[in-house]
Amino acid sequence: MDPRTAFILATAFALLNGGILGLMNRGLSTNIRPAADDWRIGTLLAAGGTILLAAQSPDSAWLVLPVGNACLLVGFTLYWRSVRRFDHLPDNPWLFAPALVATLALSFFTWVYPILWVRVVIAAIGWAIAMLGSARSLLQHRQSHLEIGRVTLAGILLLLTSFMIFRALYFSIMMRDVSSILVSDSIINVLTPLSASILPVIGTTAFLMMCSERLRRELASRAVELDEKNTALTRAIRAREDAERIARHDLKTPLASIAATPALVRANHPVEPEQEALLNLIENAARRALSMVNLSLDLYRMENGSYQFRPERVDLKAITLTAIEDLRVHANSKQVIIEFRCAQSPVYAAANAELCYSCVANILKNAIEAASDGSTVTLDLHATDYVHLSIHNDTAVPANLRDRFFEKYVTQGKVEGSGLGTYSSHLIAAVQGGKLSMLTSESSGTTLTLTLNSDTDTNVVNNPNSTLIPITEEVQQRKTPSTSLSDSIQILVVDDDTYNCKVISRQLSQYGTQIRTALNGRLALESCLAFRPNLIFMDIEMPIMGGIQAMQAIRALQQARRQMPSVIVAFSSDDGIDSQNRFLALGFDLCMSKPASTASLIQLLEGLSSQSICDDQNIKPVPIHRNLLADITGFIASRLQFIDDLKQAISEENSLASASIVHKLKGSLAMYGFEYAAQICQEIEHNPDATEINLELVEE
Questions:
Q1: Range 312-342 burial, b when 16+ CB lie within 10 A, else e
Q2: N or C: which end of the chain has fewer CB within 10 A?
Q3: How far is CA 199 from the centre of its chain?
Q4: What is the value of pTM for the model shown?
């Protein structure tokens, strides 16, 4: 192969690889693209320089030689800068100084003193500087020995440097008289263009391996970042759940006690009209606060679609009157007159009382704030196939807000406005199967219309636990369960809030029930060792032992004792449907939200069947030391297994096994305080003929 053919082949390979790298450029990450662009341009310049050197002739050598070598030198310098950019090193314009100096020297020895071996030495020095700089940068910034592409490329650069130094020495010693590399068929002249194509061809492959390795590291790093973000997100979700739990338990629990106290005062003492007014104020304020807490916690579920709407029969007229009275002070401060029109009474909707109050109060408050001083805000309530409540004020919504009126955080002209009032009202209307619409103009003012379903749906029920009491609602008539039933019911109230225990105890005590209290699940388990309650009100979150753990321990204890299981009610501030379903799935019989209304308590007491209050009076209380409580359930189960093993041994007439088991039973039962059972075991030891009869007593 002659040198010219070698130059042409080298050019073709270089152009091909430059084109491939250009096509792959879009698939590279943005932080690698600048390095890839430099490498691609360097490849094209190397190809251009190679083809120029192949096209030289005696007439054109004066121009082609400097330009061709300059292209090669600048191309190899761009390789150097590409490697530096790949490692995110700052650009340094001095990188091109060797190429510039070498180009000037090559031009001098082409135009003034045309000496081939000097030009070869100068070109070799320029190449060596660029390639050694590239190899040094590659090896210096290697992060691990597994970067095969980086090591391969550095090896290629060092190999080419060695060849160029050898070529310079060879020309300076052996080919001083040659005027052009194209006129000699020396193997060195053939290898020169082929060596120039190694970087564009094999070097490009190694560079792409580097890019692939970088991408893999970035993906691994991103995966770690995503894991960390997922962990942080999980922690944030847990923090939200903890905040929700704290809000429900630590805030709702005392509010529930406050809300229930006025009813107890009325039930036990005659009250004066002024005292009744104060009790109504306390009761409504506490229940209103409960409503606000519930709403703030439910809005998040509404936004993500997890809120489960349970329609109730709601008197929208009573709720509207409540909202009017609550906001009348604000209206009076602006001399705004509130006019309410409703020909029907009551007006029932299939909705939720707390949600309806929040929606109506928000709309009315906004209407009062937007109304002109001394104007009138009109409310029009009527029912057809649907229930419609329209609220009108005399001012128009600003034009720039009309298309975004119900969007989140949209507000104007209110210094402390959050933009959540209309957004939450619109969301509340939608989640109840209704809608909230707005009409506004400069001439007629603004009208917001709330549309809800009527109460004709047979699935709509009354909610006795509603935390909202409209001002027109009369105190519910109190009803006492039958005395024959209530006298025989033993109730255990388990709650870590002493006020809650007092409130529900006072509510139940007027019906003749026998009530005991416990401040945590551990104390409840101790009480169940002493007596079997027919009904247990169990709080969920308590110190020492929570409600779920206590319920499971009581179930196991009563099963081991062959007792009729108590009716255990999950008595919690967490009134979400998902939570209640979870409580029922875990083994609770019923779920009841705090505060419990008198009507719901009466309904629960009367719903207890005669079977559920049966109690085996022959079971004698056994005093158990509190340090042994944690093991008592397992102990009883193991002793019952011993009794089954004893029955099996008796049926097989295995007297040795029977005597051994009876001896173990006697000692262990006595140690745990089951003196009566231990005494019976002793009688069995002395009188084996009465074993079967006495075993029944031991089981009891």
A1: bbbbbbbbbbbbbebbeeebeeeebebeeeb
A2: N
A3: 51
A4: 0.44
